[in-house]
Sequence to fold (400 residues):
Amino acid sequence: MKIACVGGGPASLYFSILMKRQDPSHDITVHERNPAGSTYGWGVTYWSSLLDQLRDGDPESARAVAEASVRWSDGVAHVGDRTTVHHGDEGFGIGRRRLLDLLAERARTLGVRVEFEHEVPADPLPDADLVVAGDGVNSALRDRRAQHFGPEVTHGQNRYIWLGTTKVFDSFTFAFVETGHGWIWCYAYGFGEDASTCVVECAPQTWTGLGLDRADEAEGLAVLEKLFAGLLDGHPLIGRAQADGTAQWLTFRTLVNRTWHHGNLVLIGDAAHTTHYSIGAGTTLALEDAISLARALREHPELESALAHYERERRSALLPVQSAARLSAQWYENLPRYIGLPPARMFALLGQRHSPLLPYVPPQLYYRMDRAAGRLEVLRRFKRWLGPRVARTVQSRSRP
Fold:
């Protein structure tokens, strides 16, 4: 096949690797409009299950990713001057630029052409048997055919900004700080020997009350460094200012599409779907899209059949993840409901934020139920059965 991948993100690069391993005669080009080495974001997170999948697909790139990653096994939450620690599942962090460099180099080794500073027009499509739209949430290829794909975007309530810092965190760290305008918090995790990601989030009234809506990037970073001084230990926060010097505060956009393929064009990664950053699944889902699409093309000789199978498989796999992401975002949007609990209990409910039952049960009662369910299998089964039913009932009553 002749394959054109538009967008040089993890999904496109890993898909090209898998397709070359399946059949070296495939003619594959990855087109990236930005220069080599220029990428947004700081570090990304993933979990051990992804490494297992990468080893199955391409042991060499999996080994390179693992060696370039840092890992942690604890979660730490700072609430004001109180701290609690949770010993949980092992997680990993890797610099987004480092990940892309590794995948691009592996793709080239296998014979893939990776072309930087090459913007592909949305119309007409590249001359190829298959065109993979991996050009992100603002996909031009998808939006040019929006009537067919049916993209829908929902904006979250809270404001957030993606920052870096020279403080190296050896645990996945949460910090919640109370201000005169409400709470502001961050998620911080290491991704290299000398850097960490620090995502700061707050309610819109806190954002405006602190003057962050009016501050340029330098002014805003100074405010945040003061608020999180106890966490940063004197280390600076590092931003990525826009052309006019303003800070990149955003509201999260949850994207879904009515369909993911049209003729020989197929969506992958953020062009097809997004999930709230608080579950740390974006990169994993993009790579899993690549794995599923490559497998479908191997197992289904007819292109339409392969693309339809890929879409069905990934839509089904995404349902629980999208639900978890929606509930996670809502937990943070309703932070005042939980922040007054003792830190250990608040952190426990933070870990339970994907539960469809949690929003409808008083937090203290839910905590006791969860503790009891941890000891009795029958209560665990009852909680799993009850949560979705309560959520559906409440949602149906709230509809006009």
Notes: The radius of gyration is 22 Å.
